[in-house]
Design a protein that fits this description.
The complex is a heterodimer of chains A (105) and B (123). By secondary structure, chain A is mainly β. Chain A has no helices and eleven strands. In chain A, 33% of the residues are buried. Chain B has 123 residues and is mainly beta. Chain B is 0% helix and 52% strand. In chain B, the strands form two sheets. In chain B, strands 2, 4, 5, 6, 9, 10 and 11 form a seven-stranded mixed β-sheet that branches. A four-stranded antiparallel β-sheet of chain B has the order 1-3-8-7, with no helix packed on it. In chain B, β5 and β6 (59-61) form a beta hairpin. Chain B starts with a strand and ends with a strand. The chains are: A mainly beta (105), B mainly beta (123). Chains A and B meet through β5 and β10 of A and β5 and β10 of B.
Chain lengths: 105, 123
Amino acid sequence: VLLTQSPGTLSLSLGERATLSCTSSKSINGYLAWYQHKPGQPPRLLVYDTSNRATGIPARFSGSGSGTDYTLTIASLESDDFAVYFCQQRFGWPRTFGQGTKVEV
Amino acid sequence: QVELLESGPGLVKPSQTLSLTCNVSGDSISNGDYFWSWLRQSPGEGLEWFGYIATGGGTFYNPSLKSRVTIGIDKSKNQLSLSLTSVTVADTAVYYCARCFGRYSACWYFDLWGRGALVTVSS
């Protein structure tokens, strides 16, 4: 399953809403996760199965979507949110990832 | 808390075998039903999953890499290992170990990651 993320880079300001997209090459039944990755740190699981927030993830992060189109929304950007975000599917084998969206100031 | 730390040579020559270790601290690697995995990210590319070794011992390998990959687990040392044979410059990447969770004996998502180890393949 090929995952395509857009945009490649998102330039936003503190307090703005971020909308990140992940499109799959076939329907993946909602079996999609989002991760946050900052340089030098381990990637962090944010959302799994489209809309379930992982333990300890703030409510400003939300996921939605179905079929082939999925969205991660960050309601109001905080300084800690500027990072790379990537999606991952568990519908097919092997598990595959999108190429990432960089959210920058 | 549980932490993962990758280690190994940062430089490997073409045609040689790349060997990495992942040390698990904060809990026993034998605890729980997890799928211990290796992944990598090449420059400018998305993440690629090598596969896993389950706590119970079963393995799954990505078909694109299967002929060159071995993932092992040493429960006495609380370590995960990766062996990748016949490397080329295309294997230059940051390599990550990660813990995968799921249900029905399947790896779903990765809830714990190491910081990654850069491996460069060059003569």
